Amino acid sequence: MPIRASQPPLTAQIAESLVARRSVLLIAVGVVAATYTDSAAAGASRELQGAILGKALSYAQSLKAEKANVLVVSRESVASVQPLVDAFNTVGTNVKLSGPESVDAELALWADAAYIPPGQLTASIREFCITQKVLSMSGSVEDVEAGRAAMAVGVNGDKPQLVVNLSRVTAEGHKFSARLLQLARLVG
Fold first, then answer.
1. Nearest to 97 by CA among 112, 67, 76, 123
2. How far is CA 39 from CA 36, 94, 102, in A?
3. Helix or strand or coil: residue 73?
4. Among 84, 140, 169, 181, which residue's beta carbon has the most beta carbons within 10 A?
5. 8-state DSSP, 149
6. At residue 149, does pLDDT exceed 90?
């Protein structure tokens, strides 16, 4: 069958199709890479944070109870923090949820430790953790590196990493076994 002058040659059509497919593939790869980068930058998942932080509490020589009491302080919905709560429960801690408005009373009466999501760790909560000897745990490694919280779980490459601020741990009246500290990245 002869090629009409108005039609591009078949090889040109194939080339255009391949260029279009390549562009779509590159866009898709870019979206996946951006999504992966955003989630890695955000740190470890809440499930992983709860499991690792909850287990780390069993190495706190300053906690006397067999099961630590952890208060999760959050303005977020219960559904959004439920994976974290479930993970804390799985490793054998007692967990309660609280909004920031009732944190002082809750911490004073019950908690050994408090988990505060990124962006919600206020100066008053930080000071309260020191005066009441409540171990502060954050969803943000930056909070730990800056001395605003005692512990957090981050990501180093593709592996979770416990980060501990020794100065903050001491200020809050706690001590961890050397066994745990050997596994953590220590700051402060």
1. 76
2. 5, 28, 31
3. strand
4. 84
5. -
6. yes
List of E strands, the chain: 69-73, 94-98, 113-116, 135-138, 151-156, 159-165, 185-187
Q: DSSP label at 137?
A: E
Cα dist. 110→17, 70, 104, 130, 171 in Å?
65, 9, 10, 15, 19
Residue 94 backbone phi and psi in degrees, to 5: -90, 135
Question: What pLDDT is stored for residue 180 in this prediction?
Answer: 95
Contacts of 45 (CB under 8 A, 6+ apart): 83
Q: Is the pLDDT of residue 37 over 60?
A: no
Average pLDDT across the chain, whole number: 80
Q: Are 163 and 156 in contact (CB under 8 A)?
A: no
- Pairwise CA distance, residues 16 & 21, whole Å: 9
Could you tell me which residue, 32 or 74, shows the higher pLDDT? 74
